Amino acid sequence: MNPFASRQSPKGWVLPTSLLALLIGMLGSLAVLKEGARQRTVASLPDGIRQEFAAGDLDMAKELVNLREEVSKLREDKTKLETKIAETGNATKEINDSLQETKMFAGLTDVVGPGIIVTLNDSKKPPEEMLIADNGVVHYLDVLKTVNELFNAGAEAIAVNGLRVGPRTDFRCVGSTILVGAQKIAPPIAVQAVGDSKTLLGAINMPGGILTELREVDPNMVSVEPAKELVIPAYDGSTKFRFGHVPEVKN
User: What is d(CA 235, CA 170) in angstroms, rounded to the nearest whole number?
Assistant: First the structure.
């Protein structure tokens, strides 16, 4: 018997070799599958990115695709937002224009425009030259009638000695002074009216009007002049309502 002879079975190499071959096969299959998935991913990329990254980092290519999609969506959202802002801006402008018109109608804003200025002053004649001494004095009714005639002639805004005449402005006599609202004024009294100058001049100088009456006493008690541009201040009196309110809208 040979002492150097191996005790191992002649077929002992078969099992290790088989396991090694199986492992190599599995690795090869995984490599083929991975390459197939990579090729499919590359094929799904847009042309420009596929050419740029076909041989490069596939993960980076996919990230680039995602970023481009995100940028595209942000641009779309930005366009929608700009459209909304433009639509909202137009609506806001319309609301603001409507509000300004309403405030101007109520006398709550300054008004600029052409018109006329009517100045009323006490007569300088001595009392003995008048049938009634009180005739040569400008009363609150003279001012009120002048304002009413101007409004009737189409005046859009009126101020008396710089005080805007509003819906609640009243005229009263207190002693020798005239109250316009809560403000005392005294002659000379300037009545400024914004409107069509020719129409206002024709109406305020009509026979039988208040200015005619004053001129009959003393022509110097009245002066009227057109104005290319007048600035009528906003009404600064109270706008609060204590008892009245807007009725509810019933459907």
Answer: 13
* Contact between 58 and 41 (Cβ < 8 Å): yes
Q: End-to-end CA distance of the chain, in Å?
A: 121
Question: Do 161 and 185 meet the contact criterion of CB atoms below 8 Å apart?
Answer: yes
CA pseudo-torsion sign 140, 141, 145, 151: positive
Scan for tokens 């999609």, then name that residue: 69
Q: What is the mean pLDDT of residues 204-231?
A: 92
Residue 83: both structure tokens together: 């459209």
pTM of this structure: 0.62
Q: Is the pLDDT of residue 1 over 50?
A: no
- Which phi and psi (to 5°) does residue 119 adopt? -110, 125
What does the alpha-carbon distance between residue 145 and residue 211 come to, in Å, rounded to a whole number? 9
Q: If you search the block for the tokens 């005229």, which residue do you land on?
A: 171
Characterize the bridge pairing of strands 171-174 and 177-180. antiparallel
Residue 241's pLDDT band (cuts 50, 70, 90): confident
8 A C-beta contact, residue 216 and residue 210: no
- 184 three-class SS: strand
Long-range contacts of 125-133, Cβ-Cβ distance < 8 Å, separation of 24 or more: 125/218, 130/217
Q: What phi and psi, each to the nearest 5 degrees, are found at residue 235?
A: -65, 130
CA–CA dist 175, 186 (Å, integer): 11
Cross-sheet strand order for the sheet of 111-120: 163-164, 157-160, 189-194, 111-120, 222-232
Sign, CA dihedral 104-149-220-227, equals positive
Element (H or E) spanning 59, and its range? helix 58-105
Q: Residue type for 206, please?
A: M
